[in-house]
Amino acid sequence: MNRVETPAGRARLDLLDPMEVARLGGLELVAEGVVEGFLAGLHRSPRRGFSVEFAEHRMYQPGDDLRYVDWKILGRNDRLYVKQYEEETNLRAIVVADVSRSMAWTGNPALRLSKLAYAQRLIAALTLVLQRQRDATGLIAFDDAVRVIVPPRARLSHWRQLLATLGALEAGQGTAAEPALRRVIDQLRRRGLVVFVSDLLFDRPLALKALRFLRHRGHQVVVLHLMDPAEVTLEGPAEARFEDPETRAAVVLRPKDWAGPYRETVQGVIAGWRLACRRHGIAYHAVRTDTPFGVVLRQVAASHPT
Amino acid sequence: MIGFLHPWLLAGLVAAGIPIVLHLLERREPPTVIFPAVRYLVAATERHQRRLKLQNWLLLVMRTLLILLLVLAAAGPTMRAGRVAGHAPSALVLIVDNSASSGAVVKGTPRLATLRSAAREVLARATPDDALWLVTADGVPRRGDPAGLATLVAELTPSPRRLDLGAALATGAEVLAPETRSGEIVLVTDLQATAVSPARVDVPVLVVRPDEAPPRNVGIAGLSLGTQPWPSEGGRAVVKLTGDSGPPVPVSVRIGERPGRQALAPTNGTVVLSLPGAPPGWWPVTADLDPDELRADDHRLGLVRSSPMARVRWDPAERYVAAAADVLERNRRITRGDEVTIGRLEPGISIVEPPADPAELGALNRALERRSVGWSYGALVTGSETADSSVGLGGTRVLKRYVLEPAGSGRTGVLVRVNRSPWVVRSGSVVLLGSRLDPAWTELPVSAGFMPFMDLLLNRIARGELAVVDAAPGDVAALPDRVTEVRRAGERWAVEGGAGFRPEQPGLYFLLAERDTVGALTVNVDPRESRLAPASDEQVRKLWRARVVGPDAAGEEVFAAAARGDLRGPLLWAGLLIGLTEMGLASAWRRES
Fold it and tell me: By CB neighbour count within 10 A (0-12 exposed, 13-18 middle, 19+ buried), where does A108 fall?
């Protein structure tokens, strides 16, 4: 594994392979390590990130969103700088996490985290960043029903409570996202940030309707579409019976015959979600579970209302 | 119709089921893989299912077809395809009729030259993959490659033998019977009608015969020299001619080197010529015609034994023996003397009858033993029995006889048998008769064959001279029992008495028993070779279901008889095309997927 190090020589956990990072310790340790790395990439400025007010320039770092590159400086000095914004204080954020059975799956347990494990670590890091911005963070976990609701709070001890809840999450049964998203209304009385973490293996129209509703209520909505790499590229034995762990629906086919059509279908699904989200001002990120956490945090940080 | 060189390989067609079986096996109970994104798979298959099914079936069909084509190609398919440039590997028997008649000259060209040329045309069309045999007048199938057999054909000369075409075809069919390749017999012949005989042949037969009509021919069919030995005064020769009708032709017959006697003889008729006497001994007699287009039958050999008539002593009291002796004496076949005694055992040559009184049998046997005769009289056998066909006695009934028992070394010298038991035997200078020459013992004395038998017995058998045997080259001649050696002009062949002997060349052969010359074998060309008239094409087509062509068409028609194109090439090309297409489509679709 390539180690990515800071100028001081310390490894940046936010840019390491998620599986490697997960091996280092529990949720808290991983989250703090990732956030430290992430913030170091942001010039150790916890006050900058998820905001809209311009503050200053800094040197471009790998993983930075190209949308924040200051092209004028590049034109004048031939140097890459990105713009940074002042944080928006008193933000209320809530993470809606999918803990259905499909989230517990990984295509390669030896090399990759399950989608649920990945989501747990990502959410822990994300909420820590928000906590450090003194934002109130909450959590809603659901499978075929809402399982956990942790109302948003800004205290640091709240993050540890949230972390404990997060760590105790186990994969449930089916998926029913729409009721969970509706429950967000109860938790966010005024405009806030909703981060929806799911593999999106359910019917899009209903969930999208709830997401649009949240957007309509003025919330900033970010959708993190978790996908195992094995869900992107179809592989397997010469012929296999592929069975859905939630619905038990099955299909028998030869992966080598269907790899192409499957890839097209997955790309179509991603494109469909991206288009639908963009149309309604929702930030959408397709996240493979082998993507370093820091990269995802930067993408989320870069998401802002359009 | 499609045939196969290796039909047993068609069993490999079951291999064509391999792709289908693999397909079915693969379809059976595939492993279950837990996969959350099944909904994407369902969506993908809904869109592409029909196309992929079509692709899979197409690949399955192509793979099955590919195996089918390879198996079919391995089985060596051939197809009747008319005149094709090449031909499937075949088995061919080439029969070249170089019998004596092939020596005829037609318009200045020996007929055999025409046949050789046609045979070379046939061999020129053969390939190294063909199995080839050459059969000539000797009837022996010789296997070889085209070049080797062409050399043999080029070296062929007219054989003195006769070739029975039906027998030659049967030989060819026998040679081809074990062959799995398509077989064919090509018969290159002058198609003499006398050589045509039925044959059961299951393979295609191509008959190549000359276009020109045969020349007119007259030959000597036989030379009969009458009863032997000839007296010192000489004898008569009867010459029989055969061949095409026409005016009488001159015939010349001579004994030894003496000047010949000439006479005009009708074609297909006989002429009798008197020949002068000669000193005692064997004398060749030759009959000649003026040369014509076929020389082989213009000359015929015979052999005559010249010796003075036997001097015989007989008992006038023996009614039937005395009567016969009187007749022979009057006809100058014998004379009175003491050279040969008939009836009892005497010093010198004796023809011994068993005694009428059984009490004298013991004394006779003792006397025979003292003379070192290898036979003695045994028990008396009564009952009606029949003599075998030796020395012209076939069917003669025997009512009473003594069993002739061999003494010492053997059973040699048996001249006539009754019921497979010796009845007339010869040992040294003694001939023993099993029965008395009396109607109470045998019907011989009152039969028509008695006089010739007595003549033979007194003049030849008793004097140790057995036979002059006629034969044709290549035929098996039955030799008398006593013969141990055959000689001809310095050549010698050791033989077993009673066995067959196959002379190869025309000529005179002497038969020896130890050191004694006991007979002769005259070998002359079969008279049927003189008749050159060919059988009709229609007759041959009907008889052998053969195609009949002239020498110029031999090369074109050979192998077209079984006219089968080799389909292996097209099948392999088709297989290659299908294989490449399958590879291309499979890889393209795989890339696409």
Answer: middle
Instruction: Specify the residue for token string 């170091």.
Output: A40
Write down the number of H helices and E strands in chain A: 10, 10
CB A98 within 8 A of CB A172: no
Q: For residue A119, give the nearest of A102, A132, A135, A136 by alpha carbon.
A: A102
**Lookup: tokens for A102:** 């499909």
Q: Is B82 left (phi over 0), alpha (psi -120 to 50) or beta?
A: left
pLDDT given for residue A46 in this prediction: 41
pLDDT for position A47: 43
CA B427 – CA B369 distance, rounded (Å): 11
Report the distance separating Cα B192 and Cα B532, nearest Å. Answer: 5
What DSSP string describes B360-423? Answer: GHHHHHHHHHHTT-SEEEEEEEEEEEEB-SGGG-TT-EEEEEEEEEE-TT--TTEEEEETTEEE
pLDDT (mean) for B488-494:
88
CB-based contacts of B531: which residues, under 8 Å, 6+ apart?
Answer: B192, B193, B194, B217, B242, B243, B244
> Is pLDDT of A117 > 70?
yes
**A48 confidence band (pLDDT: 50, 70, 90):** very low
Span A117-135, average pLDDT: 88
User: Could you tell me the CA-to-CA distances from A86 to A54, A56, B186, B358 in Å, in that order?
Assistant: 6, 9, 109, 163
Name beta bridge partners: A84.
A56
Q: CA A185, CA A181: separation in Å to the nearest integer?
A: 8
Question: What is the structure's pLDDT at A30?
Answer: 76
- Strand-pair partners of B2: B79
d(CA A141, CA A227): 18
More confident residue, B350 or B181: B350
Residues, chain A: 306
A·B CB contacts under 8 A: 94
Q: Hey, how many other C-beta atoms are within 10 angstroms of the C-beta on A28?
A: 16
The Cα A259–Cα A249 span in angstroms is 19
Q: Do B593 and A261 touch (CB under 8 A)?
A: yes
Q: Are A251 and B40 an interchain contact pair (Cβ–Cβ within 8 Å)?
A: no
Whether residue A240 and residue B27 make contact (CB cut-off 8 A), yes or no, is no
Helix (H, G, I), strand (E, B) or coil at B253: strand
**Minimum distance, in Å, between the CA of residue B32 and any CA atom of chain A:** 4
Amino acid letter, residue B380? L
Q: B100-109, B449-458, B549-558: which has the minimum mean pLDDT? A: B549-558
Chain B environment of A239 (Cβ under 8 Å): 26-27, 30
Give pLDDT, residue A305: 40
A243 CB neighbours in chain B (<8 A) are 32-35, 38
What whole-number distance in Å separates Cα of residue B58 and Cα of residue B50? Answer: 12
CB–CB of B512/B165 below 8 Å? no
C-alpha to C-alpha distance for B305 and B510, rounded to whole angstroms? 12
